[in-house]
């Protein structure tokens, strides 16, 4: 990609990470082409596909010309986090678009997706677009492989309330769904490069927005397709289902909770260091890490302040995270 020294006023970069996505990719691309906001460019990074993904991209590239850019991926085969980091860095380095949206290869966007988020992004940026990292995300409609609705609201299906999640609660639980995110260039600049401790690229971007501004659009803007090959998907978080998991795989559940606990602590430490390097306020991160280091009796007194979600989730984190 050729670097430039100016920005197009309303251009949005669509960051599309692909890997063996030929089954659903054309539907996703068609939904991007159908957006009511028409000033966009698709940047694609492929992770080493062996199916028809690249052939599909070539066909759409012939139609779209410079509006579809295949970004070389020097880390092909290293997974979704590196794939999206490649796109984030390409958009930032190129300097043409003021904003970027993240796209999965198997979803379907509703026509007003970009327009709705861009309106909210401009509102929260105010006059600080170049200095303040900003992020906008939305709800999703959960659908099956054939796009039959499973739940009209992903947030409610997951028993989440993204509109009220705090800087502190995001350090433990990500409530920002990556495939709905729009970020500005200030956020990309602060987020990159992704540290080795990054759990997921979208979670890291959500954490970076804790030092800036974040807004949740409380309406579904994407059909979030669930199928057997999902990297991450919508899981039933009801009490009955969770108790069944404990009964059938109790040891595995405990192990996964502990592994996630270690990972969130390391990610928070990396965030504190990044904010310190950039002269941003990371006091809330230090507060969180101090609380995580306290004895169990002290953490029990305040765990609802730091851990968001169903009570069973909160208690398991308090008891098993150190």
TrEMBL record:
Family annotation (Gene3D superfamilies): Spore Coat Polysaccharide Biosynthesis Protein SpsA, Chain A
CDD domains noted in UniProt: GT_2_like_d
SUPFAM superfamilies: Nucleotide-diphospho-sugar transferases
Ranges of residues in domain Glycosyltransferase 2-like: 14-123
Source organism, top-level taxon: Bacteria
PANTHER family, per database record: GLYCOSYLTRANSFERASE, GLYCOSYLTRANSFERASE 2-LIKE DOMAIN-CONTAINING PROTEIN
Protein known as: Glycosyltransferase family 2 protein
Species assigned in the record: Acidovorax benzenivorans
